[in-house]
Amino acid sequence: MRRFFRWILKVLILIVVGLVSFLTAMRFAIHGREAAVPNFVGLAPAQAEQVALSNGLLLSREDRFYSSEIPVGRIVSQEPAPGTKVRRGWRVRIAESLGPQRVTIPSVIGDSERAAELNLQRRGLDVGSMSTISSPELPQDQIVAQSPPPDAQGVVSPKVNLLYNAPVPAEKNFVMPDFVGAKLADATVAVTDAGMKLGAVRTVTTPDAQTTTAPAAPLAIPPKPAPKTKPIPMEAFVVAQTPAAGSKVTTGATVGFDILRK
CA–CA separation, 1 vs 104, rounded Å? Predict the structure, then answer.
């Protein structure tokens, strides 16, 4: 019996030793596939590439920034930060320094979209985001705002964001159709498809409609109420319109209807 328990104890010890060895090997394997991100800031791109390869990492140059501290052409920022643990083969994003800002931000307000792009490129600047509006109150077909503003100092990025005012579409003239007698749903679709707006819709009654009062009936046992049935919805028909049929209207005009439900 004692031999049996000794044999069981030896087997358990071997199992524990095996598990510890396996976990230790897995730990070394996992950490062997990891690398700490070096500090690339201040290095030249060629140096940074060598350091990255020696650590099993890749570099991706994605942006440029002005810097009064980092010389031109050297790494000014990186992502992830130095010391971060990543998998081998991880791609580290870096940005190069343009040195101190020496370029004057020009004014491109009043230029066309193409002229503004060429004006910036001649000065070594890039177009950032290009937003578009269509406002009749501002000069059309030209740049109406920019960021950074002209002659700005302390600019971080060589990108200039622009706001372009596109030409306002010309208004279209229409001859107002005659919708009297048409269904309200059909008239509404025709109005919106023509670029006009649906205004007030009033419900009217027939001119000869009168309300009468039936004579009082003698008291009697009320009959059983008839079973309730779902009312049939009445369709709406146009009986009058504003503007009148045949008048001239433009895109965006508001059209109102008087309707009668039948």
Answer: 94
Phi and psi of 84, rounded to 5°?
A: -70, 135
Q: What are phi and psi of 116, to 5 degrees?
A: -65, -40
Would you give the DSSP letter of residue 157?
S
CATH no. for 170-206+233-262: 3.30.10.20
> Pairing between strand 197-203 and 254-261?
parallel
Residue 70 DSSP label:
S
Q: In what order do the strands lie in the sheet with 236-242?
A: 197-203, 254-261, 236-242
- Reported as a pLDDT band with limits 50, 70 and 90, residue 174 is confident
Instruction: Give the CATH architecture of domain 113-165.
Output: 2-Layer Sandwich (3.30)
Question: Please, where in the chain does CATH 3.30.10.20 lie?
Answer: 33-100, 113-165, 170-206+233-262
Its pTM stands at 0.50
CB atoms within 10 A of CB 115: 13
Question: Residues, the chain, total?
Answer: 262
The CATH T-level fold of domain 33-100 is Trypsin Inhibitor V; Chain A (3.30.10)
Element (H, E) at 30: helix 2-32
pLDDT tens-digit map of 66-83? 998 999 999 999 999 999
